[in-house]
Write a structure and sequence with these properties.
- The complex is a heterodimer of chains A (about 250) and B (about 180).
- Chain A is about 0% helix and about 45% strand.
- With about 250 residues, chain A is an all-beta fold.
- In chain A, the strands form five sheets. Chain A has a four-stranded antiparallel beta sheet, with no helix packed on it. In chain A, strands 6-7-8-9 form a four-stranded antiparallel beta sheet, with no helix packed on it.
- By secondary structure, chain B is mainly β.
- Chain B has two domains: about 80 residues, no CATH class; about 90 residues, Thrombin, subunit H (Beta Barrel), CATH 2.40.10.
- Chain B has no helices and 13 strands.
- In chain B, the strands form four sheets. Chain B has a five-stranded antiparallel beta sheet, with no helix packed on it. Chain B has a four-stranded antiparallel beta sheet with strand order 7-8-9-10, with no helix packed on it. Chain B has a two-stranded antiparallel sheet with strand order 1-12.
- In chain B, a hairpin with a 2-residue loop joins strand 8 and strand 9.
- The radius of gyration of chain B is 18 Å and the shape is elongated.
- The chains are: A mainly beta (about 250), B mainly beta (about 180).
- At the A-B interface, helix 1, strand 1, strand 2, strand 5 and strand 18 of A face strand 3, strand 4, strand 5, strand 7 and strand 8 of B.
Chain lengths: ~250, ~180
């Protein structure tokens, strides 16, 4: 009796609510079949028969073709301060304290370096769709940037994955995780709140709402529900008429 | 540790070895700091327990109707989230040193300090199907947090299987 399986037979709906026509792009599941969805600050990502884990300096690949018997496959040194991994289609977007790295995993799941985008030292998760990657960078003692200010939302054109370039940069307060939800871009600002950006022009996210009463560290978008983490617990929000509302707290 | 210095950027706050640590900290008095936990990682308590409140919420993971919330460094809370307006607590699984999880076909992968575990969880049991050691190597040498003091590792005491935060008087090590 696998509890994880008997809990339901409903397939996970991992789309970002369809409006942008993205598929399974809302978390760390590239193939949503038998896997789940994590947030943008995850260090684990599954694509098919492979589990990808970033530690501080490298990307480790495990063969999980037999999910009960994972086996180490390969490791790739990336640099220092590796923090997050986001899978989208056949690519991995890796956030580190020095920038974003893009790897192709087309070939037997083994990462092939495509490109990187280097920014100043700071914490940074990343999410992406076909055309753009959105990166937040955050300064602070734990992010190697105690002495300078580096709170930004950066938009990077990745239509050519081998040549990413920045198209937009916006000042933020204390940004952390981010997600696509209902066609919009949401950025967690820690205890400062939650920001919603309109992506009508995806190269230039337009701030549409700033929910200062919704503290947020990271999010998972799930169909019509956005699950938000904050220090003291989890809060689930629904969405109606383009406005989010609290569904339930989990403490 | 040589590869740590590959990306040296001169003039940064802490010089070249940002991912290293110093063991010559002057007296800083009593501070909150990490101290190493020594032992055998297979001795760690991985068990299923009654639901308990979230104390420090970490990362989240959603799988079918299951919502998983990490209790930072300690384990995972499991919820039946078929109705997001009314999530139901199912259980808590103790996984010392855990921060991340992912699931494929009902098998849960979780880090536990330096190790990767493949777990099979049922309503009443949790079974370690496999343990792959040493995938998070730094956790054996310095704490999993930057800008923090810690008690230096004393190899004569055994293998570091984890770190715990506690009050320490004049810790000698610091991770920038």
């Amino acid at each position: 009796m696998r509890m994880l399986l008997i809990l339901g037979v409903f397939a996970i709906v991992a789309t970002a609510c369809g409006e942008m026509g993205m598929d399974a792009d809302s978390g760390n599941s590239l193939n949503s079949g038998g896997t789940g969805v994590g947030g943008s600050t995850a260090r684990f990502a599954i694509n098919g028969d492979h589990l990808y884990i970033v530690n501080h300096t490298s990307l480790n690949v495990f063969d999980i073709s037999d999910e009960r018997d994972p086996n180490f496959q390969t490791t790739t040194d990336i640099g220092r301060g590796i923090e997050t991994i986001f899978g989208y289609k056949d690519n991995l977007f890796i956030g580190s304290q020095s920038g974003m790295f893009i790897y192709s995993i087309l070939e037997d799941g083994t990462p092939q370096f495509l490109s990187n985008y280097i920014h100043q030292t700071a914490c940074d998760p990343v999410i992406a769709n076909d055309q753009f990657a959105y990166v937040t960078i955050r300064s602070g003692e734990a992010c190697g940037t105690a002495l300078f200010e580096a709170n930004q939302l950066i938009t990077i054109d990745i239509s050519d994955l081998t040549r990413p370039f920045e198209v937009n940069q916006q000042q933020m307060e204390n940004p952390r995780g981010l997600c696509f939800f209902k066609g919009d871009l949401y950025v967690a600002e820690g205890n400062k709140g939650l920001k919603k950006f309109n992506l009508t022009d995806p190269a230039h996210p337009q701030l549409e709402a700033f929910y200062q009463d919704i503290a947020a560290n990271d999010m998972i978008p799930l169909g019509n529900t956005m699950i938000i983490t904050r220090d003291e617990g989890i809060f689930q929000f629904g969405c109606e008429n383009d406005e989010i509302y609290l569904l339930s707290p989990i403490r | 540790m040589k590869h740590l210095f590959l990306l040296c950027i001169p003039m940064l706050l802490y010089g070249c070895d940002l991912d290293s640590w110093t063991s010559e900290v002057g007296d800083v008095g009593i501070v909150m700091a990490y101290q190493p936990v020594y032992g055998d990682s297979t001795d760690l308590d991985i068990s299923i327990q009654d639901p308990r409140p979230i104390e420090r919420a970490g990362k989240i993971y959603s799988y079918q109707d299951l919502l998983i919330v990490n209790e930072v460094g300690e384990g995972i809370h499991l919820y039946d989230n078929i109705d997001p307006a009314n999530p139901v607590k199912l259980s808590y699984v103790s996984i010392p040193g855990n921060h991340d999880v992912a699931i494929k076909n009902g098998i849960l992968y979780a880090d536990s300090y330096a190790d990767l575990l493949a777990l099979e969880i049922t309503r009443d049991t949790v079974q370690v199907l496999k343990r792959i050691t040493g995938i998070m190597p730094f956790s054996n040498e310095m704490p999993p947090q930057e800008s923090t003091y810690f008690q230096c590792v004393d190899a004569s005491k055994g293998t570091v299987i984890g770190w715990e935060v506690t009050e320490i008087e004049n810790p000698k090590c610091y991770r920038p």
